[in-house]
Design brief:
The complex is a heterodimer of chains A (716) and B (135). Chain A is of the alpha+beta class and 716 residues long. Chain A has 17 helices and 26 strands. In chain A, the strands form five sheets. In chain A, strands 12, 13, 14, 15, 18 and 19 form a six-stranded mixed β-sheet that branches. A five-stranded parallel β-sheet of chain A has the order 2-1-3-4-5, with helices on both faces. With 135 residues, chain B is α/β, with parallel strands linked by helices. In chain B, strands 1, 2, 3, 4 and 5 form a five-stranded mixed β-sheet that branches. The longest helix of chain B has 16 residues. Classes of the chains: A alpha+beta (716), B alpha/beta (135). Chains A and B meet through helix 15, helix 16 and helix 17 of A and helix 2 and helix 3 of B.
């Protein structure tokens, strides 16, 4: 095993191999450090910790006082308390970064609370270069302040000297780049993007030839990912992102012992200099051409997140003390951003899962109604959740359609959505009409969430028998009714305040005809929202677009609407939900079902067929027999599907002169050789129908059944 | 193992519900709802929890609206298994009911008569248990 030299024990970073220019800065005029805290005792504590540095400490007891101090003097660094009455820390920071003259001053936030990752992130967004939680380690705080003061001094000393102007700017640039590691640009990247961005920025910041991040946790799924050097030795690190050269040591037989593993368990950055390391590592570095390499552990609290490393070719000078301090700051920053991205990715997955579990897996099938629906989660992870649709069958043959959009996004919105969905289902199934259901749901919501806008929501009841529909809307976008004749109109009326704000206001219910051939489209605002476009204009665009395509079957219609309204897979910023229903003209002598090849679809098939046979006036035993025969034929189709998949089976039934003809078919995707009816099932089918023919072909199995509707004609 | 739940219709999302109770060595299983390939496995697993010490099982199909050939296979298997253990399976299915018709069409009753009522089923089990060659 390679001997690894660990820099320092704890506390101040100190390079194992000090670079030529890495020594402590020469004595210089004290720099101004501004300490801002509303608690006098905290200011006293800070002063005590920082006094040994010999800098000039300026104390401010509020954000406003700090801003006043900044007007008259230049500062090397600001230590800013987050929680202050009046002008808070974040707000104060925004003022500071908004001013040209004070923009370059690094800010370290101080907070009394245990690190809340979101708050830390907010701090970085507000322009912080660092974040310290109280109670702080005096040594750590002191070394952090020392790094920034050194940077400031470098900048200040060179200003005015023309030759060194570039270097002074470089120091300013360093601070700017450091800020770039925590700026808002990193806020909404997913983990992979974030890592790629961070390694690039860090490599540029240190002017290194290679930079990489190896993370703990499961191996990355992305293609081309390699195990990190040292993987398995340091709690399973996996190399996730590399910028520049191949990481040193990856192709080396000694790789498992390299510095990445060592850095993972070290308290401070580890520096490896080819000129100064012992034989095995020296040779390993020689082989890859790396002159020096630095690796630092990424930690969130006490937990190891991964390792960040940098490497440089040639025999140039390694990093100095200030560089190492800076690297530690970068590492903290990166660890925070990674933790944030991981939390955020996890939340995103959770929301989508929750969301999908709350939407109907498959739309129910109703006689005389055609249905289609879509849900597209937002492409922006933060915007997922809260849009839903629902379809319910009522005992009296009516069908309820629901569409809603919960205020906000994420887990919370998806959870509220679940609440609303279930509450509403209960009210509707209890037999409450749209207005009554909404008003009850509003009361329920007010009881849990208080009086505030919780969601917009539309409930519609379709009554196929009456060829009418009723609806009530809690501030939701109007339903669109599409004629078979290329006409489309938004239905007005039935409008109440958004859910949570209805209170005792009476809700009007709209009652409209729905003629055979006409369709209804319900949608959420994600479908129509465009930047720089008024709502009226958006609605009108949807109306015209939908009218043109009303002739398509509804599945195609949904696809076309999504495509034609300019919904771009890459672009839609909000969730989109839509549900559409068409009343078919009644042709009672025919029944046509298309169902997924899943065992649970059999029950639905039996219900539909039973209802239809009863309408046709079939005798009770005929209904029973044919339903069983069809169920057997369909079960065969289901059981012989190629495992789980998107396969379907069809049942076509027709009544001709007192005789029912039924055909049960597999539709493609079947293994022909397996689509065989055997044993008891087949025997039953032959016993239950007057005539039963089983066709086995390349495309699957087709079972034809014929039976007279009157009783007593069956064979046994 | 027995499950003492009140007899009930299946919940809206359930296709069938099986209620099992044991009384004086006889397990009473009441099956409500429909049985097809989507739930036959679960029903089978529940029925197989029958204790070795039980005299027999009365499966009451009076509340059963539908069974298909997969359920018939289950019953064949169950009857065979119980017979090997010296236990008796009795099935209560009223003449003219859908399950009765399926059991008749498939010739299931040739392997043992079906009962019209639970009393007959219980008596048949006790009679079988009392015979010296059983158990």
């Amino acid at each position: 095993m390679i001997a690894v030299e660990v820099a320092g024990d704890h506390g101040a970073p100190e390079p194992v191999v000090p670079a030529p220019d890495g020594g402590p800065a020469a004595p210089a005029a004290p720099a101004n450090v501004l300490l801002v805290d509303d608690h006098e005792e905290n200011l006293t504590a800070l002063s005590a910790v920082l006094e040994p540095l010999g800098e000039r400490l300026v104390l401010a007891r509020s954000g406003a006082e700090a801003l006043r101090a900044l007007l008259s003097e230049d500062f090397a660094l600001i230590l800013l308390d987050v929680h202050m009455p009046g002008l808070g820390g974040f707000e104060t920071a925004r003022y500071i970064t908004a001013r040209e003259r004070t923009r370059h001053i690094p800010i370290i936030f101080l907070t009394a609370f245990a690190a809340d990752i979101d708050e830390v992130f907010r701090g970085y967004e507000a322009g912080a270069v660092d974040y310290v939680t109280k109670p702080f380690e005096p040594e750590v705080l002191r070394s952090k302040v020392a790094v920034f003061v050194a940077l400031h001094r470098e900048r200040a000393q060179r200003i005015g000297a023309v030759a060194a102007q570039a270097k002074a700017e470089a120091a300013t640039e360093t601070i700017r780049k450091l800020q770039s590691l925590s700026d808002a640009a990193l806020a909404h990247l997913d983990l992979d993007e974030l890592l790629a961005e961070v390694v690039t920025r860090i490599r540029e910041l240190f002017d290194a030839d290679t930079a990489g991040i190896a993370l703990t946790g499961p191996a990355p799924g992305a293609a081309g990912a390699a195990p990190a050097p040292g993987a398995g030795r340091a709690g399973g690190l996996w190399l996730q992102a590399v910028d520049g050269l191949e990481p040193p040591g990856v192709a080396d037989p000694l790789a498992e012992n390299t510095f990445v593993a060592a850095a993972a368990v070290a308290a401070a950055p580890l520096v490896f200099d080819r000129r100064a390391t012992g034989p095995p590592l020296h040779e390993a570095l020689e082989k890859t051409g790396v002159g020096w390499a630095v690796a630092v552990a990424l930690r969130t609290g006490d937990e190891l997140t991964g390792v960040l490393y940098l490497g440089s070719l040639g025999a140039g000078a390694g990093p100095g003390a200030a560089d190492l301090g800076l690297l530690e700051l970068c590492a903290e920053r990166a660890a925070t951003a990674i933790a944030h991205a991981r939390t955020y990715e996890h939340e995103h997955e959770l929301v989508e899962l929750l969301q999908r579990s709350l939407l109907p897996q498959r739309l129910p099938i109703f006689p005389r109604l055609e249905l289609a629906a879509r849900y597209l989660p937002s492409v922006e992870a933060t915007a997922v959740g809260g849009d839903w649709y629902d379809v319910l069958r009522l005992a009296d043959g009516a069908v309820a359609l629901v569409i809603g959009d919960v205020v906000g996004h994420g887990v919370q919105a998806a959870t509220v959505m679940g609440e609303l969905r279930n509450g509403l289902r209960a009210y509707i199934l209890e037999g409450h009409g749209p207005a009554a259901a909404l008003s009850r749901l509003d009361a329920l919501v007010a009881a849990t969430h208080g009086t505030r806008m919780v969601a917009t929501l539309l409930v519609m009841l379709i009554e196929p028998e009456r060829e009418r529909l009723r609806f009530a809307s809690a501030g939701h976008l109007p339903p669109l009714r599409l004629g078979g004749d290329a006409a489309a109109e938004f239905l007005s009326g039935g409008l109440a305040p958004p859910l949570g704000m209805i209170g005792t206001a009476p809700i009007e219910e709209a009652d409209e005809p729905l003629a055979p051939g006409q369709a209804i489209l319900l949608f959420t605002d994600g479908l129509i929202e465009r930047r720089d476009e008024s709502l009226d204009r958006s609605l009108d665009r949807l109306r015209r677009c939908a009218a043109l395509r009303a002739g398509s079957d509804l599945e195609t219609f949904c696809d076309q609407i999504l495509e034609q309204t300019g919904i771009d897979e890459v672009e839609h910023r909000d969730d989109i939900a839509l549900v559409t229903l068409r009343l078919l003209s009644s042709r009672p002598e025919r029944l046509s079902l298309r169902l997924p090849a899943e065992p649970t679809a059999l029950r639905e098939m039996r219900r539909e067929l039973t209802a239809w046979l009863q309408t046709m006036g079939a005798a009770a035993e005929v209904v029973e027999d044919l339903t069983l025969a069809c169920s057997e034929a369909a079960a065969n189709a289901v059981e012989h599907a190629y495992g789980p998949g998107d396969f379907e089976f069809e049942v076509e039934a027709e009544h001709r002169d007192g005789t029912v003809h039924i055909e049960v078919r597999d539709t493609g995707g079947w293994r022909p050789a397996r689509g065989q009816l055997r044993g008891t099932g087949l025997k039953l089918i032959h016993q239950l129908a007057d005539t039963a023919v089983v066709h086995r072909g390349e495309e699957g199995t087709r079972v034809e059944l014929i039976r007279r509707l009157a009783a007593g004609e069956d064979v046994e | 193992m027995t499950r003492a739940a009140p007899e009930r219709d299946p919940a809206p999302d359930e296709l069938a519900s099986l209620t099992m109770n044991e009384r004086d060595g006889i397990v009473w299983a009441s099956l409500a709802g429909e049985v097809d390939i989507s739930n036959v496995g679960m029903i089978e697993a529940d029925l197989h929890t029958l204790r070795n010490e039980a005299l027999g099982l009365v499966l009451d199909l009076r509340g059963t609206g539908f069974i298909d050939s997969s359920a018939v296979s289950l019953l064949h298997g169950l009857r065979e298994r119980l017979r090997r253990r010296g236990q008796t399976l009795r099935i209560v299915a009223v003449a003219g009911s859908a399950p009765r018709r399926v059991l008749e069409l498939t010739g299931f009753e040739r392997g043992g008569p079906l009962d019209e009522a639970v009393d007959g089923a219980e008596a048949a089990i006790r009679a079988a248990a009392a015979r010296p060659d059983s158990g």
